[in-house]
Amino acid sequence: MFALIDCSSFYASCERLFRPELQNKPVIILSNNDGCAIARSQEAKDLGIKMGDVFYKIEKLIKENNVHVFSSNYTLYADMSARVMNNIARFTPDVEVYSIDECFIQLTGFDDLEEYGYLIRNTVIRNTGIPVSIGLAPSKTLAKIANKLAKKSSGVFLLDTPEKITAALEAFPLNDVWGIGSQYYKKLHSHGLEFAGQLRQMPMEWVRTNMTIQGVRMWDELWGRPRIAFGVYRERKKGICCSKSFGKLTGDLNEITEATANYASRVAEKLRQDKSCATLLSVRLITNQFRPDLPQYFKGITVQLRHPANNTSDIVKAAIKALNLVYHPGYKFIKVEVLVTGIIPQSEVQLDLFNNWDGVRQDKISKLMDKLNMHYGRGTLRLATEGYKKAWNMRQNFLSPDYTTDWDDILTVK
DNA sequence: TCTGGGGTCCTAGGACCC
DNA sequence: TCTGGGGTCCTAGGACCC
Fold first, then answer.
1. Cα A94 to the center of its chain, rounded Å
2. pLDDT-based confidence at A307, cuts 50/70/90?
3. SS3 A246
4. What is the mean pLDDT of residues A257-275?
5. C-alpha span between A136 and A147 (Å, rounded)
6. How many CA atoms lie within 13 A of A373 on its CB side?
7. Is the CB of A186 under 7 A from strand C?
8. Gap from A250 CA to C1 C1', in Å?
9. What pLDDT sits at residue A350?
10. Pairing of strands A102-106, A95-99
11. How far is the C-alpha of A11 from the C-alpha of A29, rounded, in Å?
12. Relative to the CA of A83, which of A127, A228, A297, A327 has its CA 20 to 30 Å away?
């Protein structure tokens, strides 16, 4: 049996934890650059605020209803997420962290799974203050469905017998099924399908033709046959990217170079975290598609690294080289993306005797940077090209303190 | 009337997830 | 003024090989 444990309105719950006066009040969290709503408390959902609603378009509604607004504070959310996951790991060693606010666990050999579900739920709530709901079922897709049903009932939902599963699927809307997005929903709906139970009744060949092999896997899972692997150990990532919109439009190559260096440096950090090296690096420059009055530009280029690397210096140099190949004056850019691919394990990188490569030295420098930045905060030690003014940096006008990760931000109790 | 067969690798694009 | 970021997997099609 699988369980899916999911934090309710996770970002909003994190913010409310340190602002208890916001319990039962509408709260929303904005995307980077304070662009649109990406998380809402139940009260905010009830006001009709939807995922992705553009901030300035709902400002009136926000004022009228006294909605509390926060910029995304990923430092806080990541730390709270780790606390939740650690608590869950006390119940079973097999935890697959699926996203910042969700994990799958595998449970076997329990007489009363429902009771165990409540025990996990209550423990997490007591120890972290973050409410969670738990869905239990024989496949991951069904566990996701059980989890949605748990949210509508008492926080834990068990789908264990064929009868219970059939009854649940009959009334479960297709567009809420894990793996069915807007495009597949449109297609299925045009064939008269509306509920998960109806899709499950379709012949496998029909599913394969209309939804490829992935659809067949999902279809099997709906029948309670697990087809999606349970992975406690995270696979090596196939690509690592850092891409963020600027706080303003800019055509200034110096500013864009600074941003590119920052993003590339972050990519190098992530590579080192994964103990991976990259062989290819792409940079893409993008204008603002929401400004059709301005000339549009959208171009990316991929360069080969002269040696598989994860040190900051090599990655940043390659990124700046690629940037200079894609940059074109006369445009106002909104975003630059830095992406590395061709990832290989760090341990498999071979030294190249003929390339006069100073990677060993650079690797040592990067290691030291990681150590210092871990201790004193990200960006304490960085390359000069990364700059210090950061005129392009994103807007975060409603940022909460880093209550749990920064001594300066710790709450004072009077 | 009519152009081999069977592979590999890469990229772009489309679908999905949170 | 103002519209997120970071991933996954699958398929089709082109280039290339023998």
1. 21
2. confident
3. strand
4. 92
5. 7
6. 15
7. no
8. 14
9. 67
10. antiparallel
11. 7
12. A228
pLDDT digits (tens, 9 = 90+) for A2-16: 999 999 999 999 999
Give chain A residues 337-396 with Cβ within 7 A of strand B: none
Identify nearest nucleotide to residue A98 by CA to C1′ distance.
B18
On strand B, nucleotides with any atom < 7 Å from a protein CB are 11, 14-18
The residues of A between 68 and 127 with beta carbon within 7 Å of nucleic strand C are none
Mean pLDDT of chain A: 91
pLDDT at A222 over 80: yes
- Of residues A185 and A346, more confidence is placed in A185
The nucleotide whose C1' lies nearest the CA of A100 is B18
Alpha carbon distance A186, A59 (integer Å): 31
Structure tokens belonging to residue A280: 């290819």
**Which two three-digit tokens encode residue A384?**
């000069």
What does the alpha-carbon distance between residue A35 and residue A33 come to, in Å, rounded to a whole number? 5
From the Cβ of A32, is strand B under 7 Å away? no
Tell me the Ramachandran region of residue A386: left when phi exceeds 0, alpha when psi lies from -120 to 50, beta otherwise: alpha
Angle, alpha carbons A43-A142-A100 (nearest 5°): 50
Nearest to A270 by CA among A248, A300, A225, A237: A237
pLDDT over threshold 90, residue A291: no
State the DSSP H helix or E strand holding residue A136, giving kind and residue range, or none if neither. Answer: strand A132-137
Taking 70 as the threshold, does the pLDDT of residue A112 lie above it?
yes
DSSP secondary structure of A23-73: TTS-EEEE-GGG-BEEEE-HHHHHTT--TT-BGGGSHHHHHHTT-EEEE--
Determine the residue type at A256. Answer: I
Please give the structure tokens belonging to residue A268. 């190098």
Q: Which residues contact A355 (CB under 8 A, 6 or more apart)?
A: A306, A307
- Residue A77 buriedness (CB in 10 A; 0-12 / 13-18 / 19+): buried
**Residue A172 is which amino acid?**
F
Confirm whether any atom of chain B, the nucleic acid strand, is less than 7 Å from CB of A101: yes
- Provide the terminal-to-terminal Cα distance of chain A, rounded to the nearest Å: 47
Nearest residue for C1, CA–C1'? A248
Instruction: Give residues 279-318 of chain A lying near strand C (Cβ < 7 A).
Output: 288, 290-291
Looking at residue A402, its amino acid is: D
Mean pLDDT of the region A14-22: 95
Are residues A130 and A77 in contact, defined by beta-carbon separation less than 8 angstroms?
no
